[in-house]
């Protein structure tokens, strides 16, 4: 039973036009900048916002379409919201049992199922705790148990880890990944955290301005970004240009030599650690060498990332040793070098 959706919605001047297919057991991440339309898409699937046109079908059943609209409470869905939206006056057990109770399950049965789910998410012993007594990670697990206890066909996760601090997030992310692997239904994850998307999803759909600009398995999207937003997300240097043999003239100015000949419009990518920086122009190697000016220096955990103005503008990751040797400061003029064999080119 595949979920098939053509989500077309107009909200004021904004329009969403997005096709989504999710196979059973598949986790699709909808990733995009603020205002791209991620929440709008999620709300249509949840039944909180009717489509202007298009449809949502799951197997034989139509949730939204020209002649049908299944309201939110009738849809077999589970939702985890960013801030979890747990009922403050209810215990963890009552929160999880709530979905079953409101679908008519008898009290004892609902509570037994809720207790099993709390146990599954590692919250055995917390049945009577009220949400305010739970940590962020625990509240997230209650929200997940509440979403899954009804055995939904579609699980919607709306920035499910955004409220957690970094270390809790790491742990909850790997727990969530295990629960998603066990879940046989369809999952849509909405996020603007690339790491959540890469770790949790089987497939990414990148949304910009209400349109899908790229989709595919995480590794493929990371290897071949098609927009600046995606390249930025995955931390690659990304250019558009026109190839002629082993030369690419970049749209933004400057040019690069590539190892494999290509023709016509291309995307060009290389990782920041493929860029070396030199105080003097390096001579005699078959490399791309061009003058750059240091725009900014950012310290990351194990490397230093240098933003350089070109053309072409480029990101370079350098070691602490190189940083010390070059004594970099914004405004410094240097030479950037990249081997032709490190430059990855694919048709635009
Ligand atoms: N009730 C509304 N009426 C009219 N326009 C709206 C309404 N809600 C949202 N929009 C517009 O729809 C567009 C998409 O918003 P949406 O919240 O879906 O984006 P998003 O990708 O979820 O962003 P964020 O990451 O900031 O949550 C925005 O331009 C927003 O201004």
TrEMBL record:
Q: Where is the ABC transporter domain positioned along the sequence?
A: 1-234
Q: Which UniProt keywords apply?
A: ATP-binding, Molybdenum, Nucleotide-binding, Transport
Looking at the keywords, is Zinc present? no
InterPro entries cross-referenced by the UniProt entry:
AAA+_ATPase, ABC_SmlMolc_Importer, ABC_transporter-like_ATP-bd, ABC_transporter-like_CS, Mo/tungstate-bd_C_term_dom, Mop_domain, P-loop_NTPase, Transp-assoc_OB_typ1
GO: which molecular function terms?
Answer: ATP binding; ATP hydrolysis activity
Please provide the Gene Ontology terms (biological process) for this protein.
Answer: molybdate ion transport
In terms of PROSITE patterns, this protein maps to: ABC_TRANSPORTER_1, ABC_TRANSPORTER_2, MOP
Instruction: Name all Mop domain ranges.
Output: 283-347
The protein's name is Molybdate transport system ATP-binding protein
**From which organism does this entry originate?**
Lentzea albida
Question: Taxonomic classification, please?
Answer: Bacteria, Bacillati, Actinomycetota, Actinomycetes, Pseudonocardiales
């Amino acid at each position: 039973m595949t979920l098939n959706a053509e989500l077309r919605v107009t909200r004021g001047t904004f329009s969403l036009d997005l096709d989504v297919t999710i196979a059973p057991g598949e986790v699709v991440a909808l990733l995009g900048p603020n205002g791209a339309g991620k929440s709008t898409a999620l709300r249509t699937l949840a039944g909180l916002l009717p489509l202007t046109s298009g449809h949502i079908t799951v197997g034989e059943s139509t949730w939204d379409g020209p002649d049908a609209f299944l309201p939110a409470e009738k849809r077999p869905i589970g939702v985890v919201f960013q801030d979890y939206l747990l009922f403050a006056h209810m215990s963890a057990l009552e929160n999880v049992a709530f979905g079953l109770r409101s679908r008519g399950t008898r009290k004892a049965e609902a509570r037994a199922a809720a207790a099993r789910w709390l146990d599954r998410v590692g919250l055995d012993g917390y049945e009577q705790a009220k949400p305010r007594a739970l940590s962020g990670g625990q509240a997230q697990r209650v929200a997940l148990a509440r979403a899954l206890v009804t055995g939904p066909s579609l699980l919607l996760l709306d920035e499910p880890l955004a409220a957690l601090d970094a270390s809790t997030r790491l742990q909850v992310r790997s727990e969530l990944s295990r629960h998603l692997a066990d879940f046989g239904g369809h999952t849509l994850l909405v996020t603007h955290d690339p790491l959540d998307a890469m770790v949790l999803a089987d497939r990414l759909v990148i949304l910009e301005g209400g349109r899908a600009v790229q989709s595919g398995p995480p590794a493929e999207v990371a290897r071949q970004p098609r927009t600046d937003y995606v390249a930025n997300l995955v931390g690659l240097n990304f250019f558009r240009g026109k190839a002629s043999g082993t030369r690419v003239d970049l749209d933004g100015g400057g040019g690069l030599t590539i190892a494999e000949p290509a023709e016509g419009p291309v995307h060009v990518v290389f990782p920041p650690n493929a860029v070396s920086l030199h105080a003097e122009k390096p001579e005699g190697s078959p490399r791309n060498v061009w003058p750059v000016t240091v725009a900014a220096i950012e310290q990351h955990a194990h490397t230093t990332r240098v933003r350089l103005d070109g053309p072409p503008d480029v990101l370079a990751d350098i070691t602490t040793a190189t940083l010390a040797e070059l004594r970099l400061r914004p405004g410094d003029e240097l030479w950037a070098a990249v081997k032709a064999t490190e430059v990855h080119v694919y048709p635009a």
